[in-house]
Amino acid sequence: MTDIIQLLPDHVANQIAAGEVVQRPASVVKELLENAIDANATLIKLIIKDAGKTLVQVIDNGKGMSTTDARMSFERHATSKIRTAEDLFQLHTKGFRGEALASIAAIAHVELKTKQEHDDVGTAIEMEGSKIVSQEVVATPKGTSVSVKNLFFNIPARRNFLKSVTVELRHVIDEFHRVALAHPQISFVFYNNGSETFNLPISNFRQRIVNIFGNKTNEKLVPVEEETEVLKIVGFVGKPEFAKKTRGEQYFFVNNRFIKSAYLNHAIVSAFDGLLKNGTHPSYFLNLYVNPQTIDINIHPTKTEVKFDDEHTLYALVRSAVKHSLGQFNIAPVLDFERDPNLDTPYGYKNTTTNAPKIEVDRSFNPFKNDTKSGKQTTVFRPTPNNWDSIYVGLESKGNDTKKDIRELHFESEEQTVSLFENENEAVQTNTTYQIHNKYIVSTIKSGMLVIDQHRAHQRILYEDFLKNMTIKEATSQQLLFPLQLHFSKQDIEIINQLKDDLEHTGFVFSNVKEETVAITGVPVGVPESEVSIILEQLISDVENEVPDSNFSATDLLAKSMAKSLAIKTGQSLQKDEQEHLVNKLFACKEPNVSPTNRNTFITMSVDELDKKFI
Ligand code: ADP
Ligand code: MG
User: Fold this and answer.
1) How many domains does the chain have?
2) In terms of CB atoms within 10 Å, which of 379, 384, 412, 495 comes out highest?
3) DSSP-assigned letter for residue 122
């Protein structure tokens, strides 16, 4: 027989990888700006033409590269930022994958000029579709300039996929805002088609916000500042009376990295409870600082998501911090911006640094438990134990390799009724599960123990439910007493329109989708009304982040996105019956082993393995 597998040539592999990293000009802007920041630049210039379709150039005064490094920088997985896998948990740089320059060079014409401080001359390199076209010695100032021209020149399909100049420019500006806001200690200048659009001097956070969004913003800002063991929050929320109809000015930064989180957004909106006019969205600019070990930013190169170890507690902290500030500053005089930018400590906090405010966190607080405003009980995905003994139908432990056993089991089979548990009574008696750290559910099984990640497991369960509903198109819907009016930007409405049919198959009923408003009269059974906005926002951000390719399935994305929004979070404490029902439902799934994003939902440990630990 002939062998048919071959390694892809580098330039092809790079082009494939590029699809992951570079979706549009704004992705190039993000990568180049982040490289400049990682190089400790204090002045960064961004120059674009035709919304970046023709040119994206970033010039920095950072540390530059040696000639060898300049060549190396275009290799895939070539990075100066991490060396070992452990470094991934202590990231202090923006980049770490070493993919960006290689990817960009695979799909554009790239010119690099770079010089280190103590070198007399620098290096210029030209790349075209992963190939080096020229390398020269040049006179150039300290730092690095990277020009990216004719993006997607060799992938016409991707080039045609780009949106109008207006839309692409909006993405570029959004990206610029995010990076510039996260780094007020760096000066940024932005030229669009030859004219200076932004010139942002080195400043503090408040000034940076005002420099970007205009002088009027200053009087609208309310400082937020709280510090606890797990989290430090510093930033501003907009006063309620200035809330906008669109969700434009909403920024979360986690360890100086912009992120989107529909869940934390909900925390803020709920802190504004009763203060906002219907259909308006508060502005916020919040920096969260957490121990890098408690977050996972490794999800996807272009995704603006972060996975927190304990999202539930973060929710409560963010909500209470914002609530506290709003209470304190509602009647406080407006801060005078011209006074002294360095004295940016809010009045209420002056001289109080020694006794930091205490935040009491109700760890069992569940924002979705019931709709307190209307006082009516809403249905939550609250499992009720049913045919508990049938969960483990077909689970038969063969030897010690339980993990393998579980994978191979057919849960539909009615014939075998061997329980995974030590004895079935134990399972039925409902005292076999334990929740640890409000994160994992532990249970004994015949060969040892089973540890389930509650968030991932619940995502799997919901994902399969939603997929089923969408395919059979028979989802039941619960009528809302009053139509829910939600406001979105035009672009967001476009996305909702795209997914409307699928959304309706999950149980949503739209009575009206207008220019910037959506009226909803029915929601899927079990979805609390208070959560609808989170689901739709999460969905919109997921669609925006999705790399469009042939495998793109709106249905699948919707199911994944809704599962993510609605799944029990880590940090949420679960009653015994809820724990059991989760286990029950998980093992009734078609693919119980992995979450919708292909991560393990559970692990097992045999008694043998445990024994070994005690040697
Ligand atoms: P990553 O940022 O993930 O390391 P990149 O492909 O973006 O990967 O960059 C590869 C390497 O090139 C970086 O690790 C860094 O050493 C170097 N580099 C890229 N851009 C710059 C820059 N503007 N200044 C100095 N070094 C740079
Ligand atoms: Mg990089």
Assistant:
1) 3
2) 495
3) E
CATH assignment of the domain containing 313? 3.30.230.10
Please tell me the residue having the least CA distance from ligand 1 atom 25: 64
Shortest-distance Cα residue to atom 16 of ligand 1: 80
Same-domain pairing of 185 and 249: no
Whole-angstrom Cα Rg for the chain: 26
Q: What is the pLDDT of residues 565-591, one digit of tens each?
A: 889 988 889 998 899 999 989 999 999
399-to-245, 396, 448, 608 alpha-carbon distances in Å? 61, 9, 11, 11
Q: pTM of the predicted model, to two decimals?
A: 0.65
Q: Kindly state whether residues 42 and 174 are assigned to the same domain.
A: yes
Expressed as residue numbers, the domain containing 320 is 211-328
Residue whose Cα lies nearest atom 23 of ligand 1: it is 36
Contacts of 100 (CB under 8 A, 6+ apart): 21, 31, 32, 34, 35, 301
Ligand 2 ion: Cβ-proximal residues, 5 Å cutoff: 35, 95, 100
Nearest CA to ligand 1 atom 27: 35
208 Cα: distance to centroid of ligand 2 (angstroms): 24
Instruction: Sort strands 440-445 and 433-436 into parallel, antiparallel or unpaired.
Output: antiparallel
User: Which ligand lies nearest the alpha carbon of 34?
Assistant: 2
Residue ranges of E strands in 20-167: 43-49, 55-60, 109-115, 122-128, 131-138, 143-149
pLDDT above 70 as % of the chain = 80
User: Does any domain span residue 78?
Assistant: yes
CA 288 – CA 261 distance, rounded (Å): 12
Residues with CB under 6 A from ligand 1: 31, 35-36, 39, 60, 62-65, 73, 78-81, 95-102, 144
Which of 170, 200, 230 corresponds to the end of one domain?
200
CA 334 to ligand 2 centroid distance, Å: 40
Assigned domain for 485 exists:
yes
Domain-embedded: residue 396: no
309-365 pLDDT, tens digit per residue, is 788 888 999 999 999 998 877 533 344 343 334 433 333 333 333 444 444 455 555
pLDDT band at 425 (very low <50, low <70, confident <90, very high): very low
Q: Which two tokens stand for residue 590?
A: 């078609």
Q: Which residues contact 424 (CB under 8 A, 6 or more apart)?
A: 389
Q: Which amino acid is at 147?
A: S
Asked whether residue 217 falls in the same domain as residue 289, the answer is yes
Nearest ligand 1 atom to alpha carbon 64? 25
